[in-house]
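User: Could you write out the 3D structure of this protein bound to adenosine-5'-diphosphate? I've included everything you need below.
Assistant: Certainly. Input first, then the structure.
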Amino acid sequence: KQAVYMFEEGNQNMREIIGGKGANLAEMTRIGLPVPEGFTVSTAACRDYYDNKQELSVKVKKELFSALEKLEAKTGKKLGTVNNPLFVSVRSGAVHSMPGMMDTVLNLGMNDETVEGMTKLTGNARFSYDSYRRFIQMFSDVVLGVENYFFERELTRTREAKGYTSDPEMTAEDWKELISKYKDIVLDHTGESFPVDPHRQLLLSIEAVFDSWNNDRARIYRRLNKIPHDLGTAVTIQSMVFGNMGDDSGTGVAFTRDPSSGESLLYGEYLINAQGEDVVAGTRTPQPIAALKEVMPDVFEQFSTTCQRLEKHYGDMQDIEFTVEKGKLYLLQTRNGKRTAQAAVKIAVDMKKDGVLSKEQALQRVNPDQLNQLLHRRIDEKYVRNSLVKGLPASPGAATGKVVFTADDAEQCAKNGEKVILVRPETTPDDIHGIIAAEAVVTSRGGMTSHAAVVARGMGKACICGCDGLKINLEDRQFSVNGDTINYFDTITIDGSTGEVFKGEVPMMEPELSGEFQELLTWADETRRMGVRSNADNPHDAAKSRDFGAEGIGLCRTEHMFMDPERVPIVQDMILADNQTDREKALEKLLPMQQEDFTGIFTEMAGLPVTIRLLDPPLHEFLPDKEELLVDITTLQLTTPEAPELKEKQKLLRKLRELDEFNPMLGHRGCRLGMTHPEIYEMQAKAIFYAAAHLAGQGNTVKPEVMIPLVGHVNELKAMRKVVDEAAALVQKETGREITYTVGTMIEVPRAALTADEIAEEADFFSFGTNDLTQTTFGYSRDDAESKFLSRYVDTEVLEANPFMQLDRKGVGKLVESGVQLGRKTKLQLKTGICGEHGGDPHSIQFCEQQGLDYVSCSPFRVPVARLAAAQAAI
Ligand code: ADP
Ligand code: MG
Ligand code: MG
């Protein structure tokens, strides 16, 4: 197979073979744009290089030198000759664009002789020696591993010794002098003199670019962007054009639209008398592209027409690199430009309206994960960031507030109208009220799927986790970070999208749900097959979900209703009851409260289906913390042993010990609770049906779907279904109202997925609870795995992704598949959905589409994401 392609031989569809940069240079050549001549060594040659102990094969070298000959023939120049020498750039370019991650060498071909040739050609010794020293600097850095710093230091010294303030003051003689010092630096650091043979320079540079595929930066970038590590990069060899030939030359970068707002206008920067790297290096401040109109009107005209042409040709916003050599424009790169979420949405919608894109194409232009940026307040883009410390970006959005250290303080302060940020070593389900009250949450331990993170994301609240640079002292109510101390009630700001914590207040921008955004989502709704529901536990979240376009509730967790501080004592009475009568008394008190909850939710959802999961967590979660209780008891015993609450607390402790489990995650929870305490499920079912009957009586449509958690055996579901059916019959009889409802189960343990045909006999619907299903399939405890080993697994690529964030298709996915297939074998019409965190993850949503699920359900703030992702999956 061919390893090297001249630009004339390629086109834009050959990214896989010659990389994005190579393919687009070829395409621009093909459509007649002014591109300096060149050729590209394929990604296959790179893979071959790695297979071949990092050596270029004879075949590749042969093709390379024959391509070089063609290039020399075309340009009439020759690499390494004194008369009319050829200079080239050696540029990296992978299939997926990885801007700035790999290496590039400019001005290759320079040595003591060719530099003279260039002087003769241009009549400009200053320029040719400047180009030469740039080459030594870049080549040494990229190929020989001598850091740029040593050269820059030498340059600064020379400049200072001569009393200059800027580079342009350097004369040809000065550059010459510096070059000889540069050569010494190379000799010092490598033990060898700088390679003078241009062919050798070329081979070494190509190898260095191949090597740069595997530098740390590139690896990290690929991991972050889920780009496979085995693709390899292509290398483009291109004849040089020089933007540093004088004031009629220059170089720049431009976007065909504003990449931050999406506005349709040319957006970019340029520098007069400079080489490519200067624009990004930040050593000189570039001019806005519009100013080029004044300086080089003809070039500007030609450039802006070309930009429009390229955008039209590619049907997407382009990011274009160009250089002007002595008044002549050259294009050096074009690619689809990276953009903010806001810009992505605006550009997609604008282009669809202009007829450039079809509806489906427009939908595919927006990355659903990015949409989250649009749903949260964020830090003003103009603010110059100076953060105290950085943790894991667990939930996006920005927030400012006063620091508090306990959930109770958070709640109390919020009641007094204060905006607070809850800072904790970690959070537990008990802190939920504090999380609700706080603007944002910061924890020093825990990962991206830790409790605080999951809860905060669910609420669309900013959150940073695992911020271990933050030393919390709960006793003194302060934390210290890099020598700074932040006290209780000091103001901080956090950015949940980057994980940064800032001191004091920082300027913010409100999210704007632009008209374009709404429009795009309407197109998504017309396109998708699956329904999108939300996970909502209260009327407020239900309302929010509907605002975001949810078509029902896929998971309403009833335990959050039990955790309301006013109800906790009654819930505790129920748990602590010694006998059936006492327990029923407590349940009787809870029933009207639950009924009220359901009435509120049903009302908000106005006739849309609501899936209610009966009580799931182990009962001890509703009792106080054992250690705290022990401390209380000991204190009481020492101070007031006759206090009546001592006995009560001791009783509580006994009960706590009774309920204690070695492994609560696999313990007495879910339907196992319902099996041993059917009266709890009975109460919940009655509350649902009373609420439904009452609303139906007022002429409302109500669609309750009762869901039994953690079923592993059909007999469990059978028994629990009976409890629900009996409650329904009773309420119907009592109220005289017919209630339509369904009963289904969560599929969240492997046995349920494997025996789904049996379970379907008793179920009207399945909802895949993929959080627990992932736990039980991998045998990972979700609460511990992340901080202990899971992040490491992901970092070292043992696992492709965190399976709690992205559904593991091979393992957990297989169980989902089996569940759907077996279930439908028994009941063709069985309704199926997913309600884990995965229901809001685009990659997992795509899998749900493939499995033919009827709907996905996710937290309210992810509903727009899911609407778009479901549409993309259906295209
Ligand atoms: P990156 O992928 O990091 O952007 P490039 O290969 O695009 O690296 O090179 C960086 C810059 O070097 C380009 O933007 C361009 O300005 C300059 N450059 C590359 N090749 C040439 C060339 N043949 N002639 C002039 N300048 C070049
Ligand atoms: Mg580039
Ligand atoms: Mg579960």
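DSSP finds 35 helices and 33 strands in the chain.
User: Perfect, thank you.
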